[in-house]
């Protein structure tokens, strides 16, 4: 039994390595979580630069929004996950194995020492799954692309680069210009994404930092 578990773990680790190399081509460099060659301090440095930049501005009308996802890994819909993997071109053996891991998973509840009837899980991933963070990055990239491409959501311009949303796995920070105008559209995108993917913003834990000359 232990031998079989060891072999299966090696297989998952191998697939994880393959998928990690693959997603470097499809996930934007804004995302640094669980991406080979990327480190969390990249975004820390970017955040420090952004705060320094905004502090120097004479006309301040910016906001930093830290978005906390409510039980992010537990809420992603399996059907959306599979469709997203197909959309980005993951196929063949790797796709089939990932699909099998998430195909009609079930769970049981033990109540007073008695195991109740199993039930189907339609969202979330298996606890401790080694592929979870990597696959989640691919799913979240759908939302990240929508935010990057939305012209009504303006990031902060530093030179020729527009800095809008550094990410570390499910942790997202948004740098917004004209927050009064852009926040509404940004929340609309998050809500629309949530309807199909299961993603939900935790408003109790999400925080904002406003940089403005006059707040009314």
UniProtKB/TrEMBL annotation:
E.C. code: 2.7.7.49
Top-tier EC class: transferase
Domain Reverse transcriptase: 1-216
Transmembrane segments: none
Record Pfam families: RVT_1 (PF00078)
UniProt GO MF annotations: RNA-directed DNA polymerase activity
CDD domains listed in its UniProt record: RT_nLTR_like
InterPro entries: DNA/RNA_pol_sf, RT_dom
PANTHER family: REVERSE TRANSCRIPTASES (PTHR19446)
Protein name (database record): RNA-directed DNA polymerase
